[in-house]
Design a protein that fits this description.
Layout: E1 5-10, E2 21-23, H1 26-32, E3 41-45, E4 60-65, H2 71-83, E5 87-91, H3 93-97, H4 99-103, E6 108-112, H5 117-126, E7 133-136, H6 150-156, H7 158-161, E8 162-164, E9 166-167, E10 170-171, H8 182-186, E11 191-192, H9 195-205, E12 209-212, H10 220-223, H11 225-235, E13 242-247, H12 255-263, E14 266-274, H13 292-304, E15 308-315, H14 324-334, E16 339-344, H15 352-359, H16 386-401, H17 403-415, H18 422-441, E17 445-446, E18 454-455
Parallel strand pairs: 1-3, 1-4, 2-8, 4-5, 5-6, 6-7, 9-12, 12-13, 13-14, 14-15, 15-16
Antiparallel strand pairs: 10-11, 17-18
The structure holds cobalamin and iron/sulfur cluster.
Length: about 475
């Protein structure tokens, strides 16, 4: 049937926070830019507005993106949209990792990156020949990435509607941490976008701040130093306020590149320390060893370049005893980390971690996908009970995301930078901490029939401020 319109939906979860939504729909902006000019396209971010069911009908193709924690909502939406005669395609992480799970209820699925298959799906739908499954795991050359179109940028108006614009510069990770899905969704080969294309995109989007979607941007300090030098020299000419990226500890061993990165307005590196327990090194693909002295050195060296450090820690590895929370807290308190992310290990489909625990019969049955959010316990840990893992996590969350702890960290971060940088630093520190505090609020989250759920005060005795309900 000839296509009338394409809708692209980002399922909601947290709604607006102080008037804006947190996550700009970068994935959908890229996909919408692949829609031929003659076909109308509309992006719906449910954190900003409800899905307009009454406007969507039989000649429309609806694409929904979903990580695992959004897939229950994607299914709820699909059932309603199909009832209106629309055709629904599901893509993104969960469809890529668990295609059969999604094929059971979606009209079609897109496995992998979809740079090649998404335009083909639109064309097939237009000719009435849409197939059920499209696989694109060729790890497209990022040299040829289609630029974001002006109609998409105008429609999303990201500087007005969102706290954080996203940007992709590199993609892939050659490591293979047992709990991570990166190699299935982004490939093991590190791919780089041409520096000129990155600069052009930043200028056209008029973004002054951004968070890189790159899984392991920092690994390029070792793998592609020449590219990084070229990139930083280009970015330092732009009037940016600051940007942040995910990295690993080895960035600290490249002081010259760190200095250039700071000149290029890099504000903070999110470093995956992952664990303060030296017994977990096998799970961490060789990148972190629980060596606290080394962690301190890394933080000091990155700080010396004028760049902030957010420490990422995961809990519930098979080597983790109940004391891991206290050990990690002691480290966090005496380290000079700018901010901290704490998450519970989550066995996503397609990871070696899940395969092992499935075999050992340790996955807790009946947990909805919406609680695969890294804030909930979904398996039986080895050296603690599930309750001990949940309680230890709640204890640590209260310690590190309490208002007093956040204010103290904020003040310590300000003390490290010159007075002229205080406004930038204060906003940066506070927004990262508040973001993680909100993530932890999902401990008070009870899944609902609408695939989203709601906050039930006191569900975890966490006591953080309640989240706003998503619109619609
Ligand atoms: C950036 C990012 C974020 C951003 C959010 C960005 C956003 N707007 O959603 C932030 C930092 C907020 C974030 C948060 C979280 N994230 Co995250 N995130 C990423 C990351 C690093 C990159 C995603 C990205 O934007 N890539 C760039 C865009 C262009 O590519 P893409 O999204 O992959 O989309 C392509 C294809 O997947 C496909 N596609 C996608 N959707 C669709 C839809 C259709 C219809 C079609 C045809 C194709 C298609 O085509 C696109 C173009 O090629 C990925 C890792 C990764 N490499 O994917 C993790 C990842 C998606 N995140 C993950 C997780 C676990 C989380 C958190 C739960 C972590 C936490 N505790 O905070 C939260 C959840 C927040 C939430 N409410 O959704 C996991 C998901 C695992 C899973 N099985 O679901 C991943 C895979 C990381 C990992 N290492 O395991 N994340
Ligand atoms: S280094 Fe990071 S992105 Fe790479 S596999 Fe490990 S956790 Fe995933």
């Amino acid at each position: 049937m000839p296509i009338r319109k394409v809708y692209l939906i980002q399922p909601g979860r947290d709604g607006r926070i102080w008037g804006k939504a947190t996550m700009a729909p970068y994935t959908l902006m890229r996909l919408a830019s692949l829609v031929p000019d003659e076909v109308p396209v509309e992006i719906i971010d449910e954190d900003l507005r409800p899905t307009p069911f009454d406007q969507i009908g039989p000649d429309d193709l609806v694409g929904i993106t979903a990580k695992t924690l959004q897939i229950d909502r994607a299914r709820w939406l699909t059932e309603r949209l199909k009832a209106r005669g629309a055709t629904v395609v599901i893509g993104g992480t969960h469809a890529t990792l668990a295609p059969d799970d999604v094929l059971a209820w979606a009209d079609a699925i897109a496995v992998g990156e979809a740079y090649r298959t998404w335009p083909q799906m639109i064309d097939d739908f237009d000719r009435g020949e849409l197939k059920r499954m499209y696989v694109d795991e060729e790890w497209a050359n990022l040299d040829d990435l289609k630029p974001l179109t002006d109609r998409v940028l105008k429609q999303v108006d990201e500087n007005r509607n969102y706290w954080t614009p996203y940007l992709e510069i590199t993609r892939g990770c050659p490591r293979n941490c047992t709990f991570c899905t990166a190699i299935r969704v982004s490939g093991r080969v590190m791919r780089l976008r041409p520096v000129e294309a990155v600069v052009e995109e930043i200028q056209r989007r008029k973004i002054k701040r951004f968070f890189l979607t790159d899984d392991n941007f920092g690994l390029n300090f070792r793998l592609n130093p020449d590219y990084m030098e070229k990139l930083f020299k280009a970015l330092r000419k732009l009037p940016l306020q600051g940007w942040t990226a995910q990295a690993e500890q080895l960035t600290a061993d490249h002081p010259d590149l760190l200095k250039l990165a700071r000149e290029a307005h890099l504000d903070k590196l999110f470093i995956g320390f992952e664990s303060a327990n030296p017994n977990n090194r096998r799970e961490l693909g060789g990148k972190a060893k629980g060596n606290l002295a080394r962690y301190r050195q890394v933080i000091d060296r990155i700080h010396a370049a004028g760049i902030g450090v957010v420490g990422l820690f995961v809990f519930g590895f098979d080597g983790d005893p109940p004391e891991i929370f206290q050990t990690t807290y002691d480290f966090i308190r005496e380290s000079s980390l700018d901010s901290v992310s704490i998450t519970i290990l989550t066995p996503y489909v397609g990871t070696p971690q899940r395969a092992q625990w499935e075999q050992e019969n340790r996955l807790i049955p009946g947990i909805p996908w919406s609680l695969y959010d890294t804030n909930h316990v979904t398996y039986v840990p080895k050296l603690m009970t599930p309750e001990q893992l949940a309680q230890g996590y709640d204890w640590l969350a209260r310690k590190v995301y309490g208002w007093r702890a956040m204010a103290w960290r904020g003040a310590r971060n300000l003390a490290r930078v010159p007075l002229r940088d205080w406004p930038r630093k204060a906003v940066g520190s506070f927004s990262t901490d508040v973001g993680y505090r909100i993530e932890c609020s999902h401990r008070d989250w009870m899944p609902g029939d609408d695939g989203i759920g709601q906050v039930v005060k006191g569900a975890s005795k966490q006591g953080f401020f309640p989240l706003r309900q998503p619109t619609g």
